[in-house]
TrEMBL record:
Name by which UniProt lists this protein: LIM zinc-binding domain-containing protein
Keywords of this entry: LIM domain, Metal-binding, Zinc
Keyword Metal-binding found: yes
GO molecular function: actin filament binding; metal ion binding
SUPFAM superfamilies recorded: Glucocorticoid receptor-like (DNA-binding domain)
InterPro entries per record: Actin-binding_LIM, Znf_LIM
Location of the LIM zinc-binding domain: 10-69, 70-128
Keyword GTP-binding: no
GO BP: any one term: lamellipodium assembly
Organism field: Tenebrio molitor
Domain of life: Eukaryota
GO cellular component: actin cytoskeleton
Length: 147
């Protein structure tokens, strides 16, 4: 003989009342649509994206403000595909060579101790910026001698 189970009530995780009418299922929890709100601002999460952390639900803006990571270059919050280098996080488009200012095409870079360089720029010799003296400019008054 099959066993009979009593039908259990599904309760809203927020208000703890019986779920009826429009109900959302989030993972294994149920909410009235009007009860599914951001923990910080209280705005409805029923229509848009949300984040979950430690059993609480957050709108995108509040999640980023409280737990997000900012790009080391532009200071906007990073989402999706990112680059992490030297302990910093960047949007893929913001991680650029310090010389040519372009994103490294092959994602390989060299850190020189001062600069992050793409493979093309690391091949270019560095000038130190100090003018070299030549026989024509090495006179006492600093004027160039023309012969």
């Amino acid at each position: 003989m099959p066993s009979r189970r009593r039908c259990c009530k599904t309760l809203c995780q927020s208000c703890k009342k019986k779920c009826s009418g429009e109900v959302l299922r989030v993972q294994d929890k149920y909410f009235h649509t009007q009860c599914f709100k951001c923990k910080v601002c209280g705005n409805s999460l029923a229509q848009g994206g949300f984040f979950s952390k430690d059993g609480a639900y957050y709108c995108t803006a509040d999640y980023q403000r409280n737990f997000g990571t900012k790009c080391a270059t532009c200071q906007d919050y990073v989402e999706g595909e990112v680059v992490t280098a030297l302990g910093k996080t960047y949007h893929k488009k913001c991680f650029t060579c310090d010389r040519c200012r372009q994103p490294p095409p092959d994602e390989k870079v060299t850190y020189t101790g001062k600069e992050v360089l793409c493979q093309k720029c690391v091949q270019i010799p560095v000038r130190d910026g100090t003018p070299k003296t030549s026989p024509t400019t090495n006179n006492a008054n600093g004027k160039i001698a023309v012969n």
